Amino acid sequence: MNSASRSSIQMFGAYCGLAYMVSLLLGWWIIAGFLPPPSPSTSLDAVAALFQQDYTRIRIGMVIVMWAALIFIPFAAVVSYFLSRVEGGFGVLSGSALLGGAGNMVLTFYPAIWWLVAAYRPDRPPEITYVFNDMAWLQFIGGVSMYDALPLSIAVAAFCDKSPNPIFPKWLGYFNLLVVVLLLPDQLLFFFHAGPFSWAGLFGLWLPLSVFGAWFIVNFAVLRGVILRERGAASESRIPVNANNAGTLRA
Known about the structure:
It is a single chain. The longest helix has about 35 residues, at about 200-235. The chain has helices at about 5-30, 45-55, 55-85, 90-120, 125-140, 145, 150-160, 170-185, 200-235, 245-250. The chain is built from 10 helices and no strands. The two termini are about 30 Å apart. It is mainly alpha-helical.
């Protein structure tokens, strides 16, 4: 594979990060209508009614969310690739990031499955629908520990890379550490049925959702910049030296 094709694939992978967020929000929020979510304290009958009334919307939205899990994979692969460049080969950081990406894929795919199961037979006993809804929300919002391998790997790489033009600058390391810290209160959602720490609250949903979206935007921008920088360097190295441009190249 030539360098131009390789660079195009890398750029595709970087843009998949944004496409993942768009498709995730499209399916989960716009179509399924899960934002804002029903409170964990919502009654059994009210949750069952949600899946009895909107089961077609929920099915369509969750199918899109499952495809979003696929779209995420190239982005995780690009992050892992550039981490391997920092390590000088596939290593602990690149491997951790790749597995963290697989974890985030699981956290996207399986909650969609649970919601699909709940909507697949809307006439089933409400108690069963209630359980599947709990499973989906608790995993979808609360399962960030696997995803955290991604920002932590980038942070370590940013702090360890001493090259003149690091792939991941040091400020990005601090940003990724901040992301992990801001996501920590999210874990309290397992202990609350209402209030700011529940899955519908400020620290259980809105702050993690904002931080999660910001993480994709910032890291996409950095990766895109690196890819463009390397394209420019590759183009300059291919410019032939002749009487007309020799002086320009020396300047």
